[in-house]
Here is the input.
Amino acid sequence: MVTTTLSLLNADASAINTVNFSNHTGYEQFSGRRTPAAEIRELYNGLVMSHLAEDFDILVTGYTGSAEAVQSVGDIARDLRRRRGDDLFWIMDPVMGDAGRLYVAPDIPQVYRSLSKLADLVLPNAFELEVLTEMSVTDLRSCVTAMGSLHQRHGVRNVVVTSLRLRRQDLTSAPLFADLRHDEILGVVGSTSTSDGSSRPFLLTIPLLPVSFRGTGDMFAALMAVRLREAALSRGLVGNGASWSSGNDITATELPLAKATEEVLASMYAVLVKTAKRRDTELVVPSKVSSDEENEEKAQHLRITKASEVRVVQHVEELRNPPINGFNGVQFTAQDVATILSRLP
Here is the structure.
């Protein structure tokens, strides 16, 4: 998903696959293997021997199957930083779990904690933020507190929490959200720290879609790589030695990270809504795959999972031209979290 999305946005991307699976794990059956740490190092060393490592401006990392393999990714990041200096920007998606469940080996979180200080941008979901900071995240206020810990204790300059489930009744007392129509809301919360490590949090919200998608984290990271670089370039921040960070005078909603997140979320929401509509159309048509009663539940699961595959290539227009002014009645404008929290109980 990462390489495909980057390529569709005209970014020249090379990939070291940390897994080689026949299909994603949402199907609950697959063949293939997780790439061993030694093989990850071997593939990277091949790039180095051919003098290709000096060409990379951005490193995007995601799911990695063992603590040793995660450490190998960290070693690659260190080597690229040594070669590229401030011209390298590392986007780390610390894939570990979701919805209160860890689905990686228990020794992986500690490796991510030790490596997070080396990353320029960290993209956890709410559960992964809990794991990284060892703090509880249950609402917007606790999310911002935990993000502050990543800034202060871990030294991470840029953080975007890619999915925080919120309820309408938790927000509607703030005037900005008085007109919310959906009971369940997905919040995306980001922050770029000031020079003293203080947070500048912003929030975007979209309705929670009633579909289980896979690969959205990869899609988010790839879109962010392109959109944040564009936003940082427009401010003269690329290569500034401070993780493309803005001066202390820039407010939360005017941060390059906030502007990039608006575009990323606009593209993603449009693609996912159109994917969901296509999914529903496909599932109306009777299945052509016969199955006995014993395997009917499994066959139905496989059919739903296939129909829910994110249509990235089919909706390249939404990737290249984010509907930033609104899509399907949803606006994509970052809001200042400090203002929101000041008006909540």
Q: What stands out?
A: The mean pLDDT is 91. Residues 161 and 189 are 5 Å apart (CA to CA). The two ends are 41 Å apart (CA to CA).
